[in-house]
Amino acid sequence: MKGTRPLDNAEIRKVLESFEGVFAVRNRSLFMLGVSVGGRISELLALNVNDVWQNNKPVKDLLFDRNIVKGGEVSRAVPVNTDGRQAIENLIAWHAKMFGDINPPRPLFPSRKGQGLKAMTRIAAHDALKIAFEAAGLNGKLGTHSLRKSYAQRLYEQTNDIYAVQEMLGHKSVVTTQRYLGVNYASVRDASEAMSIHAESNVRTKTLSSVYDASDDELLIELLRRGYDVARLLDKNDTEQPLQPSNEEITPKFV
């Protein structure tokens, strides 16, 4: 869904506690696997049991085969972390209880109808997640695509490598990946709250009294705030040229 936002870890934990009913394990596992591997909802719903459960244990690398990838372009493998593997284990145990066996070709996320022979639809997935989002007390534009965006955002914050995120998402262009990556919502929410005139303690802009007391990040932020062209500082091919303010009218000076 276009425009949907990602979830942070605190929100993910709230959603995990909000699934109810006979199909709660299925829906919870869909959600947890989605935020752990970043598959499109169509890719996740196309998985079978044997795609994630091999040699009586969950796979550590999940293969999205080209026959289920959007556009049928190329296959891609994504590592499955501890959260994702636990979700798979829970789901397989649910399969055994629900159907009396673990049938490798069975859809991993079966429909409520058809004795597990058909996968749940995208509409059913959307409805199940919407109910959980509302029960968790979340707001904003959320949908099935929020799972994929949550994975992308969290992976980027861990690696700071947009090309790794691009490969894991299966994007043709890094430009597409850039559109997925917004600001850190948790940080912005905290900062916005701190800006409130009713907040107990407001966050003030930090002014450095000495460059020797600053970290590299703080120094770069201070230089940007004072009008310097920081891009030239980071340019390895231009290291011998002195750093100059980006606006000639500004003559900043550290105090």
Task: Report strand %.
Answer: under 5%
Strand order across the biggest sheet? 1-2
Instruction: Please identify, by name, the CATH architecture of the largest domain.
Output: Orthogonal Bundle
Q: What helical percentage do the residues reach?
A: 40-55%
Order of helices and strands: HHHHEEEEHHHHHHHH
Please state the structural category: mainly alpha
Roughly how many Å apart are the termini?
Answer: 49 Å
| Largest sheet, strands/sense/barrel | 2 strands, antiparallel
Q: Please identify the top-level CATH class of the largest domain.
A: Mainly Alpha
Radius of gyration over C-alpha positions, nearest whole angstrom: 23 Å
Large-scale geometry: globular
Give the overall pLDDT as a whole number. Answer: 81
Number of strands: 4
List low-confidence stretches: 202-214, 236-255
- Provide a count of the helices: 12
What is the fold-level CATH name, i.e. the topology of the largest domain? hpI Integrase, Chain A
CATH superfamily annotation of the largest domain? Intergrase catalytic core
What is the count of distinct domains? 2
Describe this structure as you would to a colleague.
Helix content is 47%, strand content 5%. It contains 12 helices and 4 strands, in the order ααααββββαααααααα. A hairpin with a 2-residue loop joins strand 1 and strand 2. The radius of gyration is 23 Å and the shape is globular. Mean pLDDT is 81; it is low at 202-214 and 236-255.
